[in-house]
Design a protein that fits this description.
Blueprint lengths: L2 H9 L1 H11 L3 H17 L10 H22 L7 H6 L4 H17 L2 H12 L4 H8 L3 H18 L22 E3 L2 E2 L6
Antiparallel strand pairs: 1-2
Helix pairs in contact: 2-3, 2-4, 3-4, 7-8, 7-9, 8-9
Amino acid sequence: MSDSFREDFIATLPAVRGFARTFERNQARADDLVQETMVKAWASRAGFRPGTNMKAWLFTILRNSYISQYRKAKREVEDADGELTAGLSERGRQEGHLAMLDLRDALATLPHDQREAVILVGAAGLSYDEAAEVIGVAAGTVKSRVSRARARLADLMGENGEGAEPDGGAGDSPRKPPRAGKGVLLRQTVS
């Protein structure tokens, strides 16, 4: 590297700073752009042909650096507190599938009348009166069955904590399946 390259390189620095200010009004960002330009130019100094215009060469590097930064900034979104990122995340699909299997198993343990009522009201979206008409009982009976079914499902699905065994722990009733984690039931054969 010749001494003339180094002298020309340093001599064009004020012009490069002025040119950077035409792209960036903020002094700090303009200085960052100048620094990036000078680092890139210094790294590729072997590609500079002596006798050509040093200022034009540096201006071209600066302009290309600015355009690259501008394009990159258009694709980036500032998310300092992580709110946007949190909204973009998705829970694993297997958790929903396992929860659905657990719900199916829990529904199977309900007495037929409670299961029928909670499915008509909860899953089919019928009103209590409509469900009562389908089942052939009073609306109050449907409300009672749905209420008991929901409470039982909450116990089975672990939504009410680690409560007692179903039906108050009576000896002949099925035991509550052990939990593998919040809302996840293991299949257990009752002897």
